[in-house]
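Protocol step 4 of 6.
Sequence for Exosome complex component Rrp41 (Candidatus Marsarchaeota G2 archaeon ECH_B_2) entered exactly as in the expression construct, tag removed. Do not edit the line below.
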Amino acid sequence: MSESVVLITQDGVRLDGRRIDELRPVKMQVGVLKNCSGSAYIEQGKTKILVAVQGPREAHPKHIALPGRAILRTRYHMAPFSTDERKSPAPSRREVELSKVIREALEPALFLEEYPKTVIDVFIEVLQADAGTRSAGITAASIALAEAGIPMRDLVTAVAVGKVGGKVVLDLNEAEDEHGEADMPIAMMPSLNKITLLQLNGRLTRQELEEGVNLVKKGIKELYSLQKQALRARFSGAQVEV
Ligand code: UDP
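Step 5 output, structure tokens:
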């Protein structure tokens, strides 16, 4: 991370014209794939992600099955064409780690005990990456799981805050992520006011951290409302195909 790039003006206007507390333009759609129990597509700025959910289905091989609950499996994958430099299709260490943290962010919301001996698979395919892919992946995965009919305590909604040019800002894009001073993705169950993921790359003071959490809550409130809107559109039959 370097500070040589001017990412924000004195008046708090960012390179893409946003203020410090603004999300990138967001689009969400539920029910975009036919061969899955649930699916969702999200665009957040230039980040574009498709999520597919399969299951609950009987666990194979049988010895992996858990007697008292379903196993949640998550696969975060970046398409080779999703980044500026071609990404190898083989899973990187980063993708393995993100698959795990995404699973841990989603799991607390799910009543997995309702489906013993089964597996629920969540495939998160990053089609275009411009930062915030783990957060947008979680936001989309949660509405895909809802479409699949998995009972949930709440949706899970995620967004990152960070520090650029000394200011705490909401929803970093790639330039801000790369050249900024800190990046802090957070996932929450918004109605329950519970955080299920918090990571911090870089340094923040205690005050910046508090400021960051407040900004995240503002962003999450907006995203949560879009998630519910996308689910309502799916189930009201008012869905518009893309
Ligand atoms: N990125 C990339 N190639 C990679 C990994 C990351 O181009 O192999 C870019 C991509 O735009 C990604 C961003 O760097 O969204 C930030 O990555 P990070 O690991 O912080 O995760 P994210 O913010 O996407 O959750």
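Step 6, annotate. DSSP finds four helices and ten strands in the chain.
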